[in-house]
Amino acid sequence: MKTRSLALLFVLGLVVIAGGLLLPQWMSYLFTIAMGKGLVVLGLVLLMRAGLVSFGQGLYYCVGAYVAGMLTQFVGVTDILVIMLASVAVSVAIAAIIGLLLCRYREIFFAMFSMAFSMILYGLLVRNQFLGSTDGFNVANPSLLGWTPGAEASSDLVLIVAVCLVIVLGAVAWRYLKSLSGYAGEAVRENEIRLEYLGGSVFRVVYVKYIIAAALAAIGGTITALVSGHVDPEMAYWTTSGEFVFIALMGGTAHVAAPIVAAVLFEALRTYAFAVSPYTWQMILGFALLAIILFMPSGLWSLVERFQNKKARKTS
Questions:
Q1: Rounded to 10 degrees, what is the CA torsion of 63, 69, 70, 74?
Q2: CA-to-CA distance for 22 and 10, rounded, in angstroms?
Q3: To which H or E segment does residue 230 belong?
Q4: Residue 1: its pLDDT value, please?
Q5: Residue ranges per domain, the chain?
Q6: Of 42-56, 181-195, 239-253, which range is least confident?
């Protein structure tokens, strides 16, 4: 069963890559952006399954993007794999320090403190003239193992890397959630005292999840920076982090594929809403989220679960 699932995942990845390359350039761009944001939301889902909601994932999303931009513009490093590793390393180092304080808090305190750190970064970037202040700066086209594609081919390169990362990291996240450490997160959400009584460390469980979420956010920010060719402080603003929470609520937390699917639908919905009503498109998104909360409180993935349950009842 596991072998068949992995084979199906591999075939699906090839189909997605082929479809992305055949799509018009603007659709391929939106799809790549959705893959990056989906990874950020995947990390957020790990925290939400432990009962924590972070309004500060924009911090690591922005750090990953700015590391990519600074490496390409100021250091001359354009290899996409090196950039990814550097972005993750910097974000994990920052998360390891901030997490020592942040992971001691719960509920609204965790959410607000996480947003506070993100807004601190936003304020520092806005006042930094060297990094372009509010305008940000451009990011050079990436390369791969010495191969430097053209302007159009570089976006295809980022798309392929993004889809591969989504598949690999999604599979790893699924295995993690099915492990003892993954289930410990649900124990934190339900009863921290009982987990401590059984010998588990609540702080360690939350701390590890926070660092994993930071790494995923950094990868998502790097993908966004490389495909868009630009970074700016808005990536650390609280509305960006709120957007990630929006997508997480939209997809639900029942499966690792939910945030990826929700991110794609979110980008499609926002593009359509902006085309139809450029001055009130936020209202359309608000009504969409309100409808999901009212009719599908567990997110869009609950539709898949209903279909699976219905199929199982017919089989039995």
A1: 180
A2: 19
A3: strand 230-231
A4: 44
A5: 17-237
A6: 181-195
